Amino acid sequence: MLLGVRGRRIATLIAMFALVAAGGCDGPNPNPDNYVTPNPNDSSPPKIGLDVYNLPLQQGAGSQPNPESIDEGCCDVTRTADRTELTLVAGITDDESGGREVGIWVDMSTTCTTQGGIGRNIGPGLLGAPSAEYKDTRVNPTSVARNVFTSMSLSRASFSQCATGETFAGKADVWGEGENFAGKKVRTKTFTLRFD
User: For strand 167-180 and strand 191-195, is the pairing parallel, antiparallel, or unpaired?
Assistant: First the structure.
């Protein structure tokens, strides 16, 4: 099966994440193809992708990809996660200026409803930082990674819990943000993940 440009890019990001996660770094003989000298005149933002692994089969769907992916171009997506632990992976790639930082932002809220139908909301809160991030803080480096990644887990246990006898409903709006060494920023569309 042939992948489209977006599918190949996301597959490349995932493969690069697997290599980074497995090895941590390039070791004693780094591959120069994985690095670039940052171009301060680069006028384009990096490419970004956000993948969600382990989503349960959605109601009415015969099948679905694992992971499900979004990027800066398409599309806001709502999915039911039920009681599944999800793995979120965000990555950027930039062949001109390399990746300075990438983060996964999660805005969570919980609704607790009593048996009498009275509800209370917990969150969302003010987000001051991503829930997971990779950040290269060097100033004026001469060689930087073309691809950088971060990951995290998200499950029902990540939310504020309801009191005994209350019905729980959790919602997480999740997106990725990234920046290259030329200071150009990019943001994915949003996954809305519902837990019950």
Answer: antiparallel
Top-confidence residue, 76 or 60: 76
pLDDT at 30: 62
Cα angle value 2/84/92 (rounded, 5°) = 45
pLDDT of residue 63: 81
Distances (CA, A) of 4 to 11, 40, 134: 10, 30, 27
User: What rounded mean pLDDT belongs to the chain?
Assistant: 85
Reported pTM: 0.82
The residue ranges of DSSP E strands in 17-96, in sequence order, are 35-36, 47-53, 68-71, 77-80, 86-93
CA 3 from centroid of its chain's CA atoms: 21
**Within its chain, how far is the Cα of 190 from the centroid?**
10
Which residue type sits at 117? Answer: G
**Cα–Cα distance between 85 and 75 in angstroms, integer?**
23
**Cα distances (angstroms) measured from residue 119 to each of 53, 163, 176:** 31, 12, 31
Does the structure show a pLDDT above 50 at 13? Answer: no
Q: How many CA atoms lie within 13 A of 74 on its CB side?
A: 5
Token couple for 175: 């997106």
DSSP element (H, E) containing 185: strand 185-187
